[in-house]
Amino acid sequence: MSQTYNTIPRDLAAVALRLSDEFQGVHPMVTVFRCIDAARHGAQDVVGYATPDLVERIARQHLRVLALALAEQR
Question: Model-level pTM?
Answer without folding.
Answer: 0.87
